[in-house]
Amino acid sequence: MQQIAALPSAHAEPDLSGVWLPDIRDQKRQETANMPPWKPDILEQVQHLVAEEKAGRPFLVLSHCLPHGMPSWMLMTHNAFELLVTPGRITMLGEVDGNRMRRIYMDGRKPPEDPDLSLHGYSIGHWDADTLVIDTTSIVPQAYIAISEAVGIPNNGGMHIVEHIRLAEPNIMRDDLEITAPNVLTTTWKTTRIYRRYPERHYEVTEGECAQEDLVPGKDEHGNDIFVPNAQGAFGTVHTGK
To answer: Which range, 133-147, 191-205, 210-224, is most confident?
Structure first.
């Protein structure tokens, strides 16, 4: 029997592959222009964190060597990330903060019935014309909704994120997020983040660990090269002997 070749899609999928950098100026603008609809008791906590930051005592939401997680990675990262587009999957690889990797499954699967919760959650995507639609669930309650590096609140469970990602221009990517977190937000928060790709530059995502400043090169008793504790580590922490 003669096989008939599949017809090409009416809409070519945009090429999202490559290294993307966040628009940090737009992030800073949205810190005050589009605040999440916090519940009243949560808003009091946020206002305290904002005041502490202004007083020079930032909380440092993301200082525990954990990945930013979702949605904080997309909301307020200052680091580049790389999108790898392969059959059935889009993978995000980021810099710093432990295991920063996000998998977006594009193979038509359904969410698992008994998922393992994680900081990045379980993401399923599909194309709607030229827009990548991502549905993310199964996020640990400890994952922050962070609006800056010093202001954020754990989602406290039951969070659901829907993203619509598209190219506003060939090298400008727009991510429209809808974040539902019933334990901390009064209603779904809609916000947008912008990322830019610079094909004329040679930029690669680099390896980095947020605890690395707590260690310095040293030797063990056999003369092997190892890392040893730093007397003054990351964030100025002074380590003393027991």
So the answer is: 133-147
The alpha carbon of 78 is separated from its chain's Cα centroid by a whole number of angstroms, namely 10
The bridge status of strand 122-128 relative to strand 101-105 is parallel
> How would you classify the pairing of strands 215-219 and 225-229?
antiparallel
Structure tokens at 58: 């930032």
Mean pLDDT in the chain? 85
Please report, for residues 60, 77, 100, the alpha-carbon distance to residue 95 in angstroms, rounded to integers and kept in the order given.
18, 10, 7
User: Which string of DSSP letters, residue by residue, matches 73-95?
Assistant: HHHH--S-EEEEEETTEEEEEES
Angle at 93 between CA 14 and CA 207, to 5 degrees: 140
Where do the structural domains in the chain lie, given as residue ranges? Answer: 18-196, 211-242
Buried b (16+ CB within 10 A) or exposed e, 108-131: eeeeeeeeeebbbbbbbbeeeeeb
Contact 70, 161 (CB under 8 A): yes
Kindly give, in sequence order, each residue whose CB lies less than 8 Å from that of residue 161, ignoring residues fewer than 6 positions away.
70, 71, 121, 134, 135, 136, 137, 139, 177, 178, 179, 180
Beta carbons within 8 Å of 67's beta carbon, 6+ residues apart: 73, 94, 97, 98, 99, 100, 119, 120
User: What's the pTM?
Assistant: 0.83
